[in-house]
Design brief:
Number of strands: 2
Strand order of the largest sheet: 1-2
Helix content: 55-70%
Strand content: under 5%
Order of helices and strands: HHHHHEEH
Distance between the termini: 72 Å
Radius of gyration: 21 Å
Largest sheet: 2 strands, antiparallel
Structural class: mainly alpha
Number of helices: 6
């Protein structure tokens, strides 16, 4: 009987110890996500530094223009949260038509709104949402995978934006 009681007590202690570790792990993920997201959000300073007359520039036909890259980033900042995590965009944001926005002022404003939307959503997101299964591109993934895809996608287009800027003689503000 003593062995059984000791064994059950050991299991209970482990369960009480593991649960806080899992919550801590999820909080660490949110903190790491925020750091990475903030890092790639420097694209906003590049969007602001790019002259308005260069927003329609594209390296060649059939390739996204400067403003299309920025609106594409903005769209998917909203899209991943809404379609895979069920976190809707603000009512006045038409996610499906963001990529048709033109003009530096409008594009910068939408990019900034999308960045703030993600930051606020992550801050408010319950830890349990990170572990929940969801669908993304026909695959079953958890919330963490969705957020990792958001950073991967954004990073890819930040690199593209840097190349576009340099091709137009613009030095990214963080490089000066």
């Amino acid at each position: 009987m003593k062995k059984c009681t000791g064994f059950l007590l050991s299991i209970m202690v482990m369960l009480f110890w593991i649960q806080p570790l899992q919550a801590q792990e999820s909080n660490n993920f949110k903190d790491q996500f925020k750091r990475h997201f903030d890092y790639v959000s420097r694209v906003l300073s590049l969007a602001k530094a790019m002259p308005a007359e260069k927003y329609s520039w594209q390296p060649e036909d059939e390739v996204m223009s400067v403003e299309e890259v920025y609106t594409h980033i903005a769209r998917y900042n909203f899209y991943y949260l809404e379609n895979s995590l069920g976190i809707p965009a603000p009512e006045d944001v038409d996610v499906e038509n963001i990529e048709s926005i033109t003009g530096k002022e409008n594009v910068v404003q939408m990019l900034e709104r999308s960045i703030e939307h993600v930051k606020e959503a992550i801050k408010e997101m319950p830890i349990s949402k990170l572990k929940e299964e969801t669908q993304m591109y026909g695959n079953t993934v958890n919330g963490q995978a969705v957020l990792m895809q958001l950073i991967t996608h954004k990073s890819e287009h930040v690199g593209q934006s840097i190349a576009y800027a340099r091709m137009n003689g613009i030095v990214p503000p963080w490089s000066e």
